[in-house]
Design a protein that fits this description.
This protein is mostly beta strands and 116 residues long. It has a single domain, classed as Thrombin, subunit H (Beta Barrel). Helix content is 9%, strand content 48%. The protein is built from 1 helix and 7 strands. The chain has a 6-stranded antiparallel β-barrel with strand order 2-3-4-7-6-5. It is globular.
Length: 116
Amino acid sequence: MIARAPPNEASNRRSFQRKAIRQVATIVHAEQALQVRTWDLSIDGMCLVTPRPMPPGRHCTVTFSIPLEAGDRMVTVPLKIVYSSYTGPEAFKVGAVFAGVDADVAEAIGTFVNSP
């Protein structure tokens, strides 16, 4: 049996910085809306808390508000679900990557994520 060294800290990090954002959001899939909570946000995706699991590969949109110094900015962003994990009764953490974001929305997300 070959012993392997544990992964170094750098290999266990996310690709992009994430920032907590806790608020109500709306996911729409197949013309059905579901109210969820945001958990964190990065320039390439976000984590949400939903009342039921969502299958990986599902495409949907999410509408939420980005708190910026100049005022809140409501956005609707296309998502692709990449994972769904149980965290408690009627609580699933759902990870998603953005599936095409307008440049101005990407700039707003980057401004929020990089703010103190």
